[in-house]
Amino acid sequence: MFPKYDVIVVGAGHAGCEAAHAAATMGSRVLLITMNMNTIAQMSCNPAMGGVAKGQIVREIDALGGMSGIITDNTAVQFRMLNLSKGPAMWSPRAQSDRMRFSEEWRLALEKNKNIDFWQEMAISLLIKDNQVSGVITAMGVEIESKSVVLTNGTFLNGIIHIGEKQFGGGRTAEKAATGLTECLVKYGFEAGRMKTGTPPRIDGRTINYNILEEQKGDENPQKFSYSNTSPLKHQLSCHITYTNPVVHDLLKTGFDRSPMFNGRIQGVGPRYCPSIEDKINRFAERTRHQIFIEPEGWNTCEVYINGFSTSLPEDVQFKALQKISGLENAKMFRPGYAIEYDYFPPTQLKRTLETQIIENLYFAGQINGTTGYEEAACQGLIAGINAHLKINEKEPLILKRSEAYIGVLIDDLINKGTEEPYRMFTSRAEYRILLRQDNADIRLTHYGNKIGLASDERLDKVQHKRTQTKKLLNDLKQKKLFPNEINDNLLKIGSSEIKEKVSVYQLLKRPELNLSLLASFSDELNLYLSKYNTDILEQAGIEAIYETYIEKENKLVEKIEQLEDYRIKSDMNYSTIKALSSEAIEKLTKIKPETIGQASRISGVSPADISVIMVYLGK
After folding, report:
1. How far apart, in whole angstroms, are the C-alpha atoms of residue 101 and residue 87?
2. d(CA 350, CA 343)
């Protein structure tokens, strides 16, 4: 019935879709197994992609040849660049999506790929021989063979949904949990744990009084995620903002005695940076209100997402509290919010490729690794799919460094530090964030995508043109001078100090209050010259001019730190024989099996003194 596949991907969420697309586009014969073909790439929580640090990840996925950026551009209803009041290294793109169209667009994109087959059923076990995966077993007892398997099970592994005192099995509302795989993996020596996440109620937008809410429009000149030829939005939907109040808080407290979070029924650890509304009013009792975002779910639906009101309180308490929020007095609820507990596998059991250490050719990606967020899942799926294909074709793996991508930071954090709570990406997690900006992801990563067969030659040519033009523009800006009588009046108007003699445009760009657009408005000659360049090249040149000194410093730091990556460590290294190592270091190093001194230095519990001891030992 089935051929032997190169890659089987279990789960068709954001991680599974990227994994299947990547492996298939690179040439593997792929089977994508999902319990429901109608919920492929379902946005289970908020209908949005991107945000702080997450937007950078979507740009990186796109630069490598993944699909999340393209799908988002084709289904967006609003686009905003966040953090524009801060430096360019902090700018982060975010798009509100049409939930139904996002899922449909992903499915259609996968169906167009002739190397992808589909099978709607639950995978309950793995075929394993000599510590190497060779396929999966489905709930109907069907055995399907493959050279590699990528597990992207999301919140479905033994999932339990909680609403007040009610609890029932499920991986998502109205969808059953996945059983069998956890038990199979534990039998082979994997360590498993439990995590928790939640989602807010959905309400009928026709019952909201938008007139008294604060409107949040999209950008006046919206950008887009993908570096390909997708189109920016011409029309946008607005989001709206409202707030809870003391009456809302008091009503919510009446359900605390029935809350699964407070009465001990939920054992899993939830996301620290996305707490439920009951957790907020409990932990921050001094606050009289919390911000609530009213987010549309699409162009043609009245369903609305209540961002900031995640909860697992009883449905009657949720409903009463919602109707005490300004603008929601007459709100009708489509479905209540809920919490969900699910199994995950501590990611310290993985290699840098996301292949498991215990079973060869078996890969984990997404929430199974303890992460939270569509973007975090998608990038893991992309890397797992890429490396599964490369491994079975005996090619070098793709491993991104911390200095090359937020994706590299995320995977490095997971496998070396692990996580005991849902891991979410922040710019603060990246020590080289001036290098890892949203504007230069194409320059950083497209050559990798092209080398492995995901990003086209056309896209690589486009990047090389951008680099060449940016370099030419920067050199010209160093030569072009502006004179005091030409710009001093305008400088004073914006509160910038006058110049005493002619100064290059490049030097003026280092002033935080100036940019190329502003300087062009001061000089007709400069404006005419700059009109020859595309917006992305002007932006790139302006940012590189601002950060020149900082970029040089970070590049030197990268060179220094990455020298440690040249020191290889054998996988069978017996750390217990090195007596000068701390007991904690021996335990962590034995468990994680770092491949280099650099990786070992980033493991929690391994001190600089331990690293020195290992280097002396390797020297001997």
Report:
1. 34
2. 16
Closest to 323 in 3D by CA, of 183, 152, 209? 209
The confidence band for 608, taking pLDDT boundaries of 50, 70 and 90, is confident
| 585: phi then psi, degrees, rounded to nearest 5 | -65, -40
- Rounded to whole angstroms, the Cα distance separating 157 from 151 reads 11
Residue-wise pLDDT tens digits, 271-317: 777 889 999 999 999 999 999 999 999 999 999 999 999 999 999 99
Which residue, chain included where needed, has tokens 């020596």? 189
Residue-wise pLDDT for 162-179, tens only, equals: 999 999 999 998 899 999
Single out the residue of 161, 102, 194 nearest to residue 337, CA to CA.
161
pLDDT surpassing 60 at residue 27: yes
**Alpha carbon of 344 to those of 151, 177, 418, 620: distances in Å?**
11, 14, 12, 40
Beta-carbon contacts of 347 under 8 Å, excluding residues fewer than 6 positions away, are 364, 369, 370, 414, 415, 418, 419
| Environment class of 617 (CB within 10 Å of its CB; exposed 0-12, middle 13-18, buried 19+) | middle
Question: Alpha-carbon distance 485 to 143, whole Å?
Answer: 80
Specify whether the CB–CB gap between 543 and 437 falls below 8 A. Answer: yes
3-state SS, 551-606, equals: HHHHHHHHHHHHHHHHCECCCCCCHHHCCCCCHHHHHHHHHHCCCEHHHHHCCCCC
Place of tokens 């199974």: 368
Distance CA 266, CA 243 (A): 27
Structure tokens given for 445: 């990563």
pLDDT number for residue 271:
78
Query: Which amino acid does the sequence have at 154?
Result: G
Contact 35, 175 (CB under 8 A): yes
Place of tokens 């270091």: 585
What's the whole-model pTM score? 0.95
- Separation between Cα atoms, residue 53 and residue 61, nearest integer Å: 13
Tokens representing 510 are 């280092």
Per the CB < 8 A criterion, the answer to whether 24 and 113 are in contact is: yes
- Which tokens in the block code for residue 282? 């409990």
Amino acid at 286: E
Residue 4's nearest CA partner among 152, 128, 135 is 135
In angstroms, the Cα distances linking 102 to 45, 98, 447 are 13, 6, 28
Domains and CATH numbers, the chain: 202-336 (2.40.30.260), 457-553 (1.10.10.1800), 567-619 (1.10.150.570)
As given in the structure block, the two tokens for residue 602 are 């980033």
Token readout for 458 is: 């056309």
